[in-house]
Amino acid sequence: MPQQINAAELLARLDNGEHLNLVDVRGTMEYHTYNIGGLNIPLPKLEEVISDWPYNKTDEIIVICKVGLRSKTAQTILQQNGYLDVKNLSGGLIALQKLK
Q1: pLDDT of residue 32
Q2: Angle made by CA atoms 76, 97, 48, in degrees to the nearest 5
Q3: pLDDT over 60 (residue 8)
Q4: Is 75 a residue whose pLDDT tops 80?
Q5: b/e 18-32 (16+ beta carbons within 10 angstroms → b)
Q6: Alpha carbon distance 84, 7 (integer Å)
Q7: Is the predicted pLDDT of residue 84 greater than 60, yes or no?
Q8: N-terminal to C-terminal alpha carbon distance within the chain
Q9: Quick one: pLDDT at residue 1?
Q10: Cβ-count burial of 49 within 10 angstroms (0-12 exposed, 13-18 middle, 19+ buried)?
């Protein structure tokens, strides 16, 4: 069962000042138009950079995109590379913006 986090949970954790490992897999232009922070690694580049990035295989990583489809793919890639705690933001940033 793929792990997910919904927009309300994520917003609550961000509002509590929790430091989260966010990976935004949208394109660079999309990221600069609107983002909630985190690393911006466009999905096509994810496999290239995975060996050089700052996370451990046991860290909680939350992957985000616009509606949750690209981040679901990113979640699968990360899990195939041995990352154990990868959560997909269900509904993506669209769902998050609806709550703000």
Answers
A1: 97
A2: 30
A3: yes
A4: yes
A5: eebbbbbbbbeebbe
A6: 21
A7: yes
A8: 29
A9: 57
A10: exposed
Task: Name the amino acid, one letter, at 7.
Answer: A
Token pair for residue 9? Answer: 């949970």
CB 7 within 8 A of CB 13: no
Three-state secondary structure of 68-79: CHHHHHHHHHHH
Distances, alpha carbon 36 to alpha carbons 7, 51, 58, 60, 97, in Å: 12, 24, 23, 17, 10
pLDDT at 18: 96
Tokens 């509590």, residue located: 16
pLDDT at 94: 97
**DSSP label of 52:** G
Helix (H) or strand (E) holding 97: helix 92-99
Q: Is the dihedral of CA 28, 85, 9, 38 positive or negative?
A: negative
